[in-house]
Every structure is written in structure tokens, then in C-alpha cells.
Specification:
Length: 423
Amino acid sequence: MRSLVAGLRMQGGLLDLGFEEILNHLGLFYEKVEDNSSSYQVELSSEDFSRAGGTTLEEIVQLLSGLHDPERDDFMYPVVNEFELKVLAEIKKRYSDCGIPLVRKWYWPNQKVFCVILTHDVDYLFQPPPPRGSLRKTIPSLIRYGLGWLTGDIRVCNVLQLGKREKAKGFISTFFFMVDYGTRTEILGRLVRIPELKEFEVGLHGSPSAADSSLALTKQRSRLEQMTSRRILANRFHYLVSSPPFTWRKLEEAGFTSDCTSCCRESPGFKDGICFPFHPIDIFQERRRTVIEIPTSFMDSPFIQDVEKARHKMNRLLEVVTKFNGCLVLNFHNGYQDPKIYPQYVGFYDWVLETIASTQGVWVANVSDVCKWWLSRERTQLRKNALLYDTAKNDVHIVSPLAESRLVLCVENKEIHKLIYHA
């Protein structure tokens, strides 16, 4: 019997943090090696992977710390994921050279190919979106919104309709709410208690001024929890305001587990160069933050008047996350889902829902469920003597059970390629 757990030799510094984050993304089983002993079949260190292809590990660390190249204009290709695949190929080779298979954790539950998270920023409840098109369409909508505000009719904010359309496809999304909608703020509590919306997640749409204040974030989170009787764990800041790494620190201090603020406002794609959830790297404190950043890849507002361009971008994003087994976070504002003002865009979102529903191997979940999964997957580790390979029988033995029952293990070597073991 030979151990299949790798030894991770720590050198100290930011490159180690980035490399460990990469190993967690790839789902490797490893133990940190602090002394000079060498008792592992395969040993890994950040020094050995300082460059993969034309990208350096230092560049990857910069991306994962929120430091972006101002001249970078192509966000459609996730350079971090490409780097990770090249690292994975080299690690597979090392295992193969030792005559043992590489066993790693699959990315998503029950062998799903990729993940989609549907989200909605609720910027207002009763104010109409900026009017577009003819007055013939706009004036009746203005009257309808006004009457809704006067009577407290929650149907006019489109939230309930969004929930029903998603649930009809078997999906549950995350709604990011503010804590202040003027004189009608109290209606928020009634809205989220509607039976059709009870399964949907409520997140905080944090105010821009709270991005640098853990006290303000804590107050907003507490207020939203009081109004909705929900536990609030996810956040996305209004106007996508964020100051890495300081904002991530404030989110941790305020008790959030996930954030979806990182987003290219005008250009769909992967701002941080990655289509996975990740622990941001704090380059000043030299540590990985505990909060999970799940970058948003598509926001609707730039494409309200160009549905065909939106379809093209969406298809491209789906191709990318399928290739890299990634996570696609979509943000559709409730205001643009008014069929009387934006019929074409309502149709576009229905097309998105139908496209996802008809795609094989996709896991659709809300923000916090994905965060819980990613953390559970990361924490599911096996010690050196718990993952063994029988060379005589060419068989893998898992001595201790895995805590996450939905986790799938992928066994890869020259004889076996992606032979799946259910934990």
C-alpha cells in the first residue's frame, strides 16, 4: 500500500498562499510539511510552480488579491483557471512517474460539470426603472408603480414574478436587498414571507459607504435580519463598490461568509481571472481571508437595448465555465424584469432560464449553498494513511469516510482516467 496524499512543503510568503489556494481549487489531498523530513511519494512546493506557460504564480496571486492590470481589457478568458490546469497536468505527471494515480475531489456535488448562481440586485421596490421607449408604454407603468407605492402592492416590484419563473424551472436564486427603501421599507418583510419566496435566499445589497466599515455592515446586516427574519450571510455592494483587501476584512468582521461584488460593470467575464469561488489573498497581512469571493460574470444593465449581443455573451460564458468546470454568477435586476417596459429583456431572461434548464450537468444553487459546498469540499481532507493505493490490485482504498456525502473523487493515471468513486 502506498499513500496518495501529497506533501506540501511551505516556504512562507504570498506565493505559498496562492499555491495552496490553487491546490484547493483542484481538489488535491495534501498535508503541510513543516520540517526537513521527506516521507511522501509526491512533494509539492510553490517554488516548483512559479511559472506555467506564459503566466507566473506571482501574477496569479495579484489577481486573487484584487490587484488588476488597468490595461487588461479581455475578461472573457479566466487566466487563473488556465494556469491551474497546467499545474494539474504537471502534478499528474509527478504521480505517474511515481507509479501511482492522482486522486482528487471533483468540483461540484454529484459529479455536476459546472455551477450557475442566479442573483438579483433589488435596487428599489416601487420606483420605476429609468423609462425607455415610447411614452405610450412608460406612462401606464409610471401610474402602476405609483398606485403600487400608495397601496403597498408588492406585485409591482417584479420580485415575486421572478421567483415564480425561476421556481417553474426548479431553480432557487439569491435576492440582494438594501435596508432602506424610503417610506415603504417595511413592506420588505412582508415580501420575503410570501410562501412562493420562502425558499429563496436573502442577501444584503450593502451601501457603498459600508464597504470600508465593519460597524456599518454589521448594522445593515442586523437590520435586514430583523426585517426579514432570515440569516444573512451573502453580500453584494451597491454600484459594485469595493476596496480590496480592506473590504474583505470588513465583511469577515461583520460575519459574512460570501461576497459577489467583484464584477466587470460594462464587460461580461471574469474580473479576477477566475471562474471559481476563492479565498481572497490579503497581501498586506499575508493571509487568505476566510470570506469567499464568488465573482459575478454577467450583469444585465449594459445590454438592455441589445438583446442579441447579450445572447452572444451569455453563450460564450457558458462555453467557458463548461470547459473549466467553473461557476457562473448572473445578476439580473428586478427593475428590468417589467414586461410592460422591457418585454424583450424579460424574454431574454426566460431564454437564459430555459437554456440552463436544458443543459446537462449543471448545478443551479444560491450563493450561500455554493459557499457552503466550496468550504465543505475544501475541508474534506484525508490524512496520509487514509488514502492508499494497492499496487498489486491497481485499486484505491479510502480508509476513513468522507464527511461530505455528495463529494465525488476522481482517480486519474495512465490506466484509469476520471474513474469516479462516490464517497
